[in-house]
Amino acid sequence: MKLKLYQVDAFATALFKGNPAAVIPLKKWLPAELMQQIALENNLSETVFFVPSNEKVVDYDIRWFTPAYEINLCGHATLASAYVVFEILKSKKKKVVFNSKSGKLIITKNRQMLFMNFPSWKPERVSEYPSELSQILGNPEIVGVYKYRDILVELNNEDAVKNCTPDFTLMAKHFDKMIITAPGKNVDFVSRFFAPAAGVNEDPVTGSAHSQLIPFWSDKLEKSKMQAKQLSQRGGELVCEQLNADRVIIGGQCIFYMKGEIFLTL
Question: Global pTM?
Fold first, then answer.
């Protein structure tokens, strides 16, 4: 069996920036164990698979795998998948609709920009968390701790986020995924995202984290439209909007890197 594979840098305006995703269009689902093995072999933060949907209002069903396990939502790999649909599979539609474990995801294209309609996951402040939290992050001053799907730690400023030196071994003992964030100098807010338990110490740009970050900062900054930056080594820029209480818009560009074939003997 041969499968097409496309690697796309998402939330990037230049090659080798943003977050690389492996995109594999399928005609029908492969066994989950095999998709997980492919994701581990690719060893990117995410490998995404999609198949044509049987639902009339949905174009594709979509699933995402880290090197360690399947997750319920991934932003950069969804952005990369939409890029493949529009630019490589040459869809003539103005939007593409994916069905996922997190519901329907609608992606629209406006010139070079892709905009994802994602769920809004407003995190709530938590008072109970491991006493080692500050130690895990290299002992920065913590402003507040919140949670929806992932733990969200607010720090004082952009420099505190940039200079954070996590202990990933200790983090993996206590947390599956973690977001750190603060107000930005030249953007509304900045962040970093860690998932050592998922086989990804630091994710370059994390769309799903912004399902939490957008409602969090929209409420704090009292504005619905924002610019964000993820301060990983590769870096990434995101256009953000709190659409309503239930949905957010996450926008960015993609850069095509390569295409190839996977050879499977089943």
Answer: 0.94
